[in-house]
Structure formats: structure tokens, C-alpha cells
Amino acid sequence: MARPFPRCLLAALLSWPTLAQAQDSTRVEPIKDNSFLIEEAYNQEAGVVQHISTFSHPTRGSAWSYSFTQEWPVRSIRHQLSATIPVQQGFDGVRNVRGVGDVALNYRHQLVGADGGALAVAPRLSVLLPTGDAARGLGTGGTGIQGNLPVSLELSERLVTHLNAGATWTHAARDADGDVASTLGFNAGQSLIWLVSPTLNLMLEALWTSASNVAGAGTTERTNALLLSPGVRWAWNLPRGLQVVPGLAFPIGVGPSRGEQSLYLYLSFEHPF
């Protein structure tokens, strides 16, 4: 099942130069804030909004997940508000279930890098609303607080790395049986981005997560996951400041996640408002 990905990647790379010729040649805006699994430390510039869609589908089974995120600057690049709406399909042991998951409301502060430079730091604080149906496995059943610290560093003109560390605490999370417990999860990761050109990037992301799940009344169990994700993204810079960034990746499980594989699709629209 893993074989189609290299062909998809090759097709994207071969088609990119032809597609790029159709772009607006008056300017070349580099791809910057369009990572997949690892968060970059770049807020939206004043007057620019971004709409992001992602889709992930394991190579085995019928589960899938989709998310839509919209990012807005608040008066300047230093403050950014965003919301993420997830939709997912899973299996509850009897049948496939699908629906909206837990919606995230996010605030991110551009602590370092508002005026440019090689280093950017933008801590994020999110509230996770219990909009998903926990009884059907579509949400946690409780309100969560998530913090993440993204750090971005330009290693050279063509090489950029991004580092993340964060935690998620959920008060009164519930499982499908209605048992309640508070949970605490952690995440850490790093990515390496090679700027083949301003509008074509090759990516390698690594993400570790440690999730705490309700296992009974007042008790939890912990599961760890580790993914390595090679990917590619490219940009079409169109008239009136519109930048369209499609991308695809192939997350591969290693260590505790060995044997897991999935296809990850990304699409971003960024434009002035």
C-alpha cells in the first residue's frame, strides 16, 4: 500500500514547473507558514488571512480525518486568532461513525521575529471545546487547554528547521462508556525544510505524542506515537496577492507506531482582506 506515494510525489515534482509558468510573474512570495504536522512560528501579517484544509487517511481501514483552520491577524503580526474545525470518521467496534470533533479556538503571540530575522518564536494557547460526541469516539467529552511553543530557525538560505513542544490538559474527559477522568498529553517534534526554490519545498517532519486516555472512572492509560513524515509543498502566486499552497506527505510510524502509514493532503489559500 505504500508504493503509490513515490509516484504521487514524482508526479507533483514533474508537474510543478509547468504549473509555475502559469503564475503571476510579477512577484515571487516564498512558502513560509505551511507545514503539516509541525507548527511554524510565523503569525499572519496585518491584512492577510489564511484558510487551511488538511485530510489524512491511513493506508489500512476506513478511518479518515479532515480539518479546516482559518487564521486572522489582530491589528498587527504580533497577535493572531484562529479556529480549527475537525471532521472525522472512525470505527466504534460495530460500525463506522463520523461527525464534527472538538473545535479549537487559538491565540498565538509573535514573541520573537515580528520584525524579521533568522529566529522566530510564537507561543500558542488554545481552548478545546467539547463539541464532538465522546460516546461515539468523536471527542474527549471535556473542555481542554492546550499550549504549544513553536520555534523556527533559518539555518541557511535554503534550509529551515522548526521545533515544537507542548501539552494538552482536559478536565473531565469521558470515554464511550461515560467514565470520567482528567487527562494530560504531551507533544514534541521537529521538521527540516529544504527550499528547492521559493515556490517548491521538500520536507521531513518528526512528531512524538504521548496521549492520556480515560480507562475507567478516575483512571487513565497512556499511549505513545512516533511519526516520520516526508512531504512536498509548492506554491502558485496568483494576481491580487493570492497564494495557493497544495502539498502532500506520507507519515510513517516508527517505534511504538511501527506499521502505521497514511496519506496526508494539504491545501492553503492566503490573501489580503
Written overview of the protein:
By secondary structure, the protein is mostly beta strands. It is 6% helix and 58% strand. It has one domain: monomeric porin ompg (Porin), CATH 2.40.160. It has one helix at residues 4-20; strands at 48-58, 64-74, 76-91, 96-100, 104-109, 119-121, 124-128, 144-154, 159-174, 180-197, 200-216, 219-234, 236-237, 243-249, 252-253, 262-272. Strands 1-2-3-5-7-8-9-10-11-12-14-16 form a 12-stranded antiparallel barrel. The termini are far apart. Residues 1-6 and 17-25 have low confidence and may be disordered.
Strand content: over 45%
Number of strands: 16
- Along the chain, the helix and strand elements come as HEEEEEEEEEEEEEEEE
Radius of gyration: 19 Å
Helix content: under 10%
Weakly predicted, low-confidence segments: 1-6, 17-25
Briefly note the structural class of the backbone.
Answer: mainly beta
Average pLDDT = 91
The side-by-side strand order for the widest beta sheet comes to: 1-2-3-5-7-8-9-10-11-12-14-16
Q: For the record, what is the CATH homologous superfamily label? A: monomeric porin ompg
Oligomer: single chain
Biggest β-sheet description = 12 strands, antiparallel, barrel
Question: Which fold name fills CATH's third level, the topology?
Answer: Porin
CATH class: Mainly Beta
CATH architecture: Beta Barrel
Distance between the termini: 42 Å
